[in-house]
Amino acid sequence: MSTVEEWVSAPARIAGPDEGVSIDELRLAARNHGLPLEALRYDVTPAGLHYLLTHYDIPAIDPAGWRLTVSGAVTRPLSLGLDELRARPRVTHRVTLECAGNGRARLSPRPVSQPWLDEAVGTAEWTGTPLAGLLAEAGVTAGAVDVAFTGADRGFERGVEQTYQRGLPLAEALRDDVLLADEMNGLPLPPQHGAPVRLIVPGWYGMAQVKWLVGVEVLESEFDGFQNVTAYRLKQSADEPGEPVTRMLPKALLQPPGVPDFQSRVRVVDRGVVELTGRAWSGWAPVESVEVSTDDGGSWRPAELGPQPAPYAWRPWRCEWTAIPGRYELRVRARDGAGHEQPVDQAWNRQGMANNHAQGVTVVVR
Ligand SMILES: Nc1nc2c(c(=O)[nH]1)N[C@H]1C(S)=C(S)[C@@H](COP(=O)(O)O)O[C@H]1N2
Ligand SMILES: [Mo]
Q: Which CDD domains match (predicted)?
């Protein structure tokens, strides 16, 4: 007889010193695709080019039968269908989402999980109704501290059977830009991005953006579910509680210049003046500076920043580079208005979360 306990690994595994990416990691990477970096050219990412991360399976939900319940520490519990939700006040926010595990595959030793490099990011226009209005209607009671959000998707994670659930501090849940979104870029949410309704918490890493939302429960104690207490913690060893992963640290990405080599993705660029462009974001405060290095972080020069399109959307940047023949390692880094600066080398943590080391792009100038 075989039990679940025999084939799950808890805590999450760390790869051996010379262990390459495994078939399990490849399978995850093939399901959960990233933003092709050339799509950094779009202010708003076309939905099909937005990164994707789903822990279990994309659930089958009939929008006509879907209901959202608002329960727990409220005086008037609610249950709404999609039409009722869509009849409420509607707003649109442009928001950049990034997976907290972005950059994980570059850690050494490598935490075995979705093996992201740089590409787990995207920006969309999310339309829906502010959560705060629903919570006001339900009447949050005085002792409330957290709000738990439940998705319709179910599976096992390190031996724990669960539906995807995340808790958010009440003060964050009451922000007026936190949305129950049913549209992405002006169209109904596609299945993979949470149809019919998902949560959007601008500024926070992806794990907070609960897809396939079916339940909102106000709690009088801190939410202690798996995704808050076990996953999405910054820790060095398996047995320490660690710190929660919350908002996105600043990051700049370069749209790789020139044309790629198919296999290595090394870029080939013709000599002369090359325009380097990209995007930068932070969940703490708007990005205040972006710097570019063409000598692998040896020296840096400032890029020119475009306008900040919305408080939590990525900001465009550009600079010119007079490229002379040779091989170069380009790096970019951002600093935000809250004083966070991107490191060149990534500090290690056991689950590979909130990595924001400076991206590197290898360029051969001919
Ligand atoms: N219900 C549910 N919501 C979820 C997830 C999930 O697996 N199930 N994954 C989370 C994670 S880890 C990320 S990074 C984002 C990804 O959102 P996207 O796939 O729309 O880009 O969704 C979050 N919301
Ligand atoms: Mo994520």
A: SO_family_Moco_dimer (cd02110)
Which atom of ligand 1 sits closest to the CA of residue 100? 14
Pocket of ligand 1 (CB under 6 A): 50-55, 97, 99, 151, 153, 164, 193, 206-207, 209-212
Whole-number Å distance between alpha carbons of 269 and 259: 7
Mutate to test the pocket of ligand 1, among 97, 192, 211, 245 (most ligand atoms within 8 A of CB): 211
Which residue has the CA at smallest separation from atom 6 of ligand 1? 54
Residues near 342 by beta carbon (within 8 Å), at least 6 away in sequence: 249, 250, 251, 252, 333, 334, 335, 356, 357, 358
For residue 328, what are the CA distances in angstroms to 153, 156, 169, 290, 324?
Answer: 45, 44, 45, 19, 10
Report the separation in Å between the CA atom of 100 and the middle of ligand 2, taken as the mean of its atom positions.
5
Distance 33 CA to ligand 1 centre (A): 12
Which domains, from first to last, does the chain contain?
A: 4-244 (3.90.420.10), 251-365 (2.60.40.650)
Tens-digit pLDDT profile for residues 114-133: 999 999 999 999 999 999 99
Q: Whose CA is nearest to atom 13 of ligand 1?
A: 206
267 alpha carbon to ligand 1 midpoint, in Å?
A: 31
Reported as a single tens digit per residue, the pLDDT across 203-259 is: 999 999 999 999 999 999 999 999 999 999 999 999 999 999 999 999 999 999 999
What is the chain's percent helix, strand, coil content, to nearest 5? Answer: 15, 35, 50
Handedness of CA 350, 351, 353, 355 (dihedral sign): positive
pTM over 0.90: yes
Distance (angstroms) between ligand 1 centre and the Cα of 113 equals: 15
Which residues are CB-neighbours of 65 under 8 A, at least 6 positions away? none
- Ligand 1, atom 24, lies closest to the CA of 210
Mean pLDDT in residue range 147-152? 99
| Res. 361 pLDDT band, cuts 50 70 90 | very high
Cα separation, 81 vs 185, whole angstroms = 22
pLDDT class of 286 with cuts at 50, 70, 90: very high
